[in-house]
């Protein structure tokens, strides 16, 4: 039997399969399409689907990743991460002087969602602060900063100057993180990827091209985290 998840959407025009996890396949269906037809499609291609699922890389949990890489990028520097389970304690404390962040989780509860929620809170506070710190030197002002759980983007900028950032920016090096923040701030002045935009970004980040290339490799490692 093929493990699957069914999703209907008004924006889907035709049935298709999406492989976002090594554990199951997602069947995307238009609102008008029958589930029976989708099940028939899955059954007809069961062998191929199972082979494709088996070939997907096994994703480690966010907790496993943080245990292996116990650090977060905050305020332009790496901070050592300390994880602990403590009854009656839930939250985080950042020690700038010691360059350390302590995260306390509730024992007896699944850690994955707790970690994800807390890292989003850390990102909301510290990535937003980092953006505001850059505004003066860049010469622009962001119209608010929101933290999201994007599947394939580090960040985005709206036409009104609102910036959205992926909380996983905490997991990459401070220089790469700053590159993303400067990239989005540069869009407030040049809302495109024109020659003028890239020239402006190069002024803000002279190693922009090298950083963009490294970001592509980092995305393969961290975009899958927190998806369980």
What is the global morphology? globular
Q: Could you give me the name of the CATH homologous superfamily of the largest domain? A: Metalloproteases ("zincins"), catalytic domain
Distance between the termini: 21 Å
Query: What class would the helix/strand composition place it in?
Result: alpha/beta
- Helicity range: 40-55%
Order of helices and strands: EEEHHHEEEEHEEEHHH
The strand line-up of the biggest sheet is 4-5-7-6
Largest sheet: 4 strands, mixed
Q: List the domain count as a whole number.
A: 2
- Low-confidence stretches are none
Q: What is the quaternary state of this protein?
A: single chain
Strand content: 15-25%
Task: Describe the structure concisely for a colleague.
This protein has 228 residues and is an alpha/beta fold. It has seven helices and ten strands.
């Amino acid at each position: 039997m093929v493990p699957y998840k069914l999703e209907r959407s008004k924006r889907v025009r035709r049935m298709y399969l999406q492989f976002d996890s090594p554990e199951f396949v997602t069947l995307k269906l238009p609102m008008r399409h029958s589930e029976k037809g989708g099940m028939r499609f899955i059954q007809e291609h069961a062998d191929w689907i199972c082979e494709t699922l088996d070939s997907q890389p096994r994703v480690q949990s966010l907790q496993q990743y943080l245990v292996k890489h116990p650090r977060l990028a905050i305020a332009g520097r790496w901070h050592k991460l300390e994880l602990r389970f403590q009854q009656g304690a839930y939250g985080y404390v950042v020690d700038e002087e010691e360059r350390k962040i302590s995260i306390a989780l509730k024992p007896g509860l699944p850690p994955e969602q707790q970690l994800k929620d807390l890292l989003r809170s850390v990102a909301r506070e510290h990535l937003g602060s980092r953006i505001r710190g850059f505004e003066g030197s860049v010469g622009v002002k962001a119209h608010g900063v929101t933290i999201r759980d994007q599947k394939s983007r580090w960040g985005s900028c709206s036409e009104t100057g609102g910036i959205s950032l992926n909380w996983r920016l905490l997991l990459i090096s401070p220089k790469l993180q700053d590159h993303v923040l400067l990239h989005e701030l540069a869009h407030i002045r040049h809302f495109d990827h024109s020659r003028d935009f890239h020239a402006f970004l190069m002024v803000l980040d002279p190693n922009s091209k090298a950083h963009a290339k490294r970001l592509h490799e980092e995305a393969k490692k961290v975009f899958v985290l927190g998806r369980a």
